[in-house]
Design brief:
mainly alpha, three-stranded antiparallel beta sheet
């Protein structure tokens, strides 16, 4: 678990940039005693954000990708619970064979 200053140094990103990503809901580290605690999953999210920004994507586009990813994850987890969705949506899932 790292604190914000360590994340800044490790990924060469400013505190203002991290704050902006947090405010935009792109990464949500837990705040403990007034300090953000960056767990590995938060670092992974930050790495994804930085890589997408390096590819030229806007914050708005990254937010949309995140929304779609979370929707897909929720749909897939619910599909297991309710026997799958079938229909058109199944055409867009990658083949496992």
């Amino acid at each position: 678990m790292l604190q914000t200053g360590q994340i800044e140094a490790k990924y060469q990103v400013s505190r203002d940039t991290l704050r902006f990503y947090i405010e935009e809901g792109l990464v949500l580290p837990e705040k403990v005693a007034g300090k953000y605690q960056w767990l590995p999953e938060h670092e992974a999210a930050l790495i994804n954000i930085l890589e997408l920004r390096d590819l030229g994507l806007s914050v708005k586009a990254i937010k949309r990708i995140k929304e779609l990813h979370e929707t897909t994850w929720n749909r897939d987890s619910m599909a297991g619970e309710f026997g799958g969705c079938g229909g058109r949506a199944s055409r867009f899932r990658p083949s496992t064979s």
